[in-house]
Amino acid sequence: MIIVKHIDTIDGIKDLIFEQTYNAAIDRTRSSYFYRGMRNADYDLTTSLSRNCKDAYAELEQPMLDNFINYVRIEDPSINESIWKAMVIGQHYGLPTRLLDWTHSTLVALHFANAEDNLDKLSQRDCVVWRIDLRDLNRNLPAKYQDYLNRKNTFVFSLDGLAELARDIRQYDQDMGDQAMVCFEPPSVDQRIVNQYSFFSAVPSGITDIEAFLDTHTENTVKYVIDKKLRWELRDILDQFNINERMIHPGTAGIAKWLARHYYVKNRETDTGK
Predict the structure, then answer these.
(1) In angstroms, what is the C-alpha Rg of the chain?
(2) 66-80, 87-101, 222-236: which range is least confident on average?
(3) What is the number of helices (H) and of strands (E) in the chain?
(4) Could you give phi then psi for residue 31, rounded to 5 degrees?
(5) Cβ(186)–Cβ(200) under 8 Å?
(6) Closest CA to 98 of 11, 191, 172
(7) What's the CA gap between 47 and 129, in Å, rounded?
(8) Less CB within 10 Å around the terminal CB: N or C of the chain?
(9) pTM of the full predicted structure?
């Protein structure tokens, strides 16, 4: 089921930031929670492939990936290693894919929840952080996928592990049906993936409504709706943690975006909701 929690105080944000899971077997805190921050609480959980290709995504996905591999291999011959690596690289550079971005960091998720292209909107709409529990999600996986996790003593797949179990997307879709999906850690193709503590879920074609799937097949999914009145204060607090565009998007573009926000002058009427 999906549990909806509304956060309207900074204390509520603190509880979100520090929520963890304790593993008694190793006497350590090892969280199995992954997070996704979105700037508008009304946005649905959808993949870029679904948004871009609408109802034709199933027939257009493979040709688009094939063409991407064909055009990119001159720059990166390793893209041929697996369809999943090609998908990760494509997602990283803006290609519509079935991958959904997650992070292991609550702070990074809060950054994306409070990242607005138009800063006037920062105080005009609630934002959201989604939380999934991988141990909860993995219970739905087919036996061979669960066996792999048990052999590796982990709760998250590697890219190579996913490629070992499903060499192509057709096999993956057959394995998952509408009952499960895999979450995996991408290779560190650049510093951005490292800084964002990135992970992906590969949404099978059988799952046409991600939120309905989570509501039916999980018990520990949480949707944190963050009140719009907190967003400017939270945004400034995140800067004090060094969670900002300069760190999340390392390079000139990230620095420029961070400085633009740092020197942004608030419209008092707009930013107070008047």
Answers:
(1) 19
(2) 66-80
(3) 15, 10
(4) -70, 140
(5) yes
(6) 172
(7) 16
(8) C
(9) 0.93
